[in-house]
Amino acid sequence: xxxxxxxxxxxxxxxxxxxxxxxxxxxxxALGIAVFAYAYARNNAGSARFSFGTGKxxxxxxxxxxxxxxxxxxxxxxxxxxRLVHPVSICFNAAIFVAIIGLVVNGVSVAILxxxxxxxHHGGHEHGHHDHNRRAAYLHVLADALTxxxxxxxxxAGKYLGxxxxxxxxxxxxxxxxxxxxxGLLKDTSGVLLDRQCMDLEQRVKAAIEDDDARISDxxxxxxxxxxxxxxxxxxxxxxxSPGAYRQRVQAACRSLVHVTVEPLRCxxxxxxxx
Length: 275
Known about the structure:
By secondary structure, this protein is an alpha+beta fold. It is built from eight helices and five strands, in the order ααααββαααββαβ. The termini are far apart.
């Protein structure tokens, strides 16, 4: 359907139809890159070349997909503005037919993905096992259905009201949707690739280590993969525990910390605080 819409948008002169197809294509490209990243990460999971494993390959794949999406969005904006300034003839009937088929395909996909979300009943109790990947796919297909609906509205307005400007205008709307998704993906993945400090874990790590004697003097927390984190912790205490003891306390409080380095340091600045 994606290929058909892109081809029809070019042949029939409809920017709205082309934008709808590119919007679907942006999701397909992102998902394709994600599949490659998962396969590469799995095949090289045990390689000694990666100090902290291959978890960041997923973030790199997402970042690459986001850059491609930004390129798609820029192309859509430039092409749409060009058609606003220099309108082209549109084969409305053929374009509307393709857009309706696209809406039907997306509607069926929404119905399939939006069905039972693995909810199970056992002994009168419901246990929901939510598939977040499936949920994300559902939202993407729902967005595709909405852009198909906008494309149909623009083509109908052009055919019956003479508002031909609506067609390239919907191309700009589609570009905004793609750019918004691209920006969110760039923001999330760049933080992982640049070892952004995991502020949400800091308080849990401090609560697990700090007491009347021990204090954390240096703390680095960063993501090394999906739900996987690493930490380097310097602890100052008058009577420091062993690195293994501190590591056990931290990992008990934060299950996602799979690599933890602890440096206990003895405090010589003054007497130990009284209890």
